[in-house]
Design goal:
By secondary structure, the protein is mainly alpha-helical. It has 18 helices and 4 strands. It folds into 3 domains: about 60 residues, no CATH class; about 100 residues; about 200 residues, hpI Integrase, Chain A, CATH 1.10.443.
Length: about 400
């Protein structure tokens, strides 16, 4: 028997109205029966999963009820036009590659001579049978199937077809994944000496500040449109989440919070100390804040995009001869801690359904095993960790 949807229990019409006017946390606050406080009800994992599942069921129901006539021009298909808008700030080369894969998928279906596939050639009508056929044809092409699957996953995500993202044939095994960085590219972080060289080759204090902050908080670097309002990723840091005197620590520290979309489906990492590697970084960051007129809201780096941050890296890599990407800044600081023998459990405190404590910056992944494990750490232990880092790395005051 299929699982009953939340929308069926509260009434489909009522749930549709909630879905159209409220966010998932707001719906959870109204419907959750597991907690008494609104703050906990908004973050209830069980209710949020049920809400996402019901939204997918409703969209699937609407999709089945739709009668979509074929469109012979790929560029005019509404789902494709929305997909282009959805990609937004994705790198031009990546966007072009993904659109090419989707167009070729659409052409494979039209060329299949299978009545059911041809009848359902609109992307909004694709199902697991369609995916099976596309991927069977892809194996005969000289392409990276993992990247093709990535394009399909992004397309389904843009249409809200989350049920297809869980289909096992869309999930590439790790050993089958082909890194766009190249199979021989193993190193994914800068040593302290190499990072100092990167700082020396920056043109301005502003550029040095950005690199230091990124290494310190370990956030994902991108700036996708759907993450902009959440303050997710390094490029979307917000002034509202900066605490110049965070009393979580004693004495208070300057900290920053950043939203991580891939931790537990979305988690705000708080209390990330800015002085983890450089004692003077909080002062430098505050000076930058004051130069902007001490804003209380808005984006830390203004309207700058990921493309501009990537251009900064390209310039520095040319000058230093290193082979790194902006994403490698996530692993750089954690790799320093690991090489110094710091405890894996010191990196992050993550409790599902709650905000995470970013003692060592945003968690979730590292070159080795770091963010596979989470644990609890007292503020006293954090100070010992910071003292250990400051003594061993020797960057402070540089």
């Amino acid at each position: 028997m299929p699982r009953e949807g939340l929308y069926e229990r509260v009434g489909e019409e009522r749930f549709r109205k909630l879905m159209e006017t409220l966010t998932v946390p707001q719906i959870s606050t109204l419907l959750c029966t597991h907690h008494e406080k609104d703050e906990l009800r908004a973050r209830c994992n069980a209710c949020r999963r049920a809400i996402y599942r019901s939204i997918s069921q409703i969209k699937e129901k609407d999709r089945r009820d739709q009668s979509l006539s074929p469109i012979d021009n790929f560029e005019l298909i509404p789902e494709i036009q929305r997909f282009k808008d959805y990609l937004g700030d994705v790198a031009v080369a990546t966007r072009h590659k993904w659109l090419t894969y989707i167009k070729r998928s659409w052409e494979l279906i039209r060329e299949s001579k299978r009545p059911k596939l041809i009848q359902n050639q609109r992307p909004l009508l694709w199902d697991t049978e369609t995916i099976d056929y596309i991927l069977s044809e892809v194996t005969n092409l000289n392409v990276a199937s993992y990247q093709w699957k990535q394009a399909l996953r992004r397309l389904f995500e843009s249409m809200g077809r989350f049920e297809l993202l869980k289909y096992k044939k869309l999930k590439a095994r790790r050993r089958d994944q082909i890194s766009p960085k190249g199979s021989r590219r193993v190193k994914t972080y800068a040593t302290p000496k190499e990072f100092q060289t990167m700082l020396d080759n920056c043109d301005t204090e502003y550029e040095r500040l950005k690199l230091k902050v990124h290494v310190t908080i370990k956030s994902r670097e991108g700036s996708l449109p759907r993450h902009r309002e959440l303050g997710a990723s390094f490029c979307n840091l917000r002034w509202e989440r900066v605490l110049w005197n965070d009393e979580y620590y004693n004495p208070p520290k300057a900290t920053i919070g950043v939203f991580e979309t891939k931790t537990g489906g979305g988690t705000l990492w708080t209390h990330c100390p800015l002085d983890l590697y450089w004692h003077d970084l909080p002062q430098q960051f505050r000076a930058y804040w004051e130069s902007l007129g001490c804003p209380t809201e808005g984006y830390v780096w203004g309207e700058e995009s990921y493309e501009e941050y990537k251009a900064l890296f390209h310039k520095i890599m040319e000058r230093t001869g290193l082979d790194l990407t902006p994403h490698d800044m996530r692993d750089t600081g954690a790799s320093w801690l690991h090489s110094l023998g710091a405890d894996n459990l010191a990196i992050g405190q993550y409790t599902p359904g709650q905000n995470a404590i970013g003692f060592g910056g945003v968690g979730w992944e590292n070159a080795e095993i770091y963010f596979q494990r989470y644990g609890r750490l007292t503020p006293e232990a954090v100070f010992k960790l910071h003292a250990f880092v400051h003594k061993e790395i020797g960057f402070n005051g540089a």
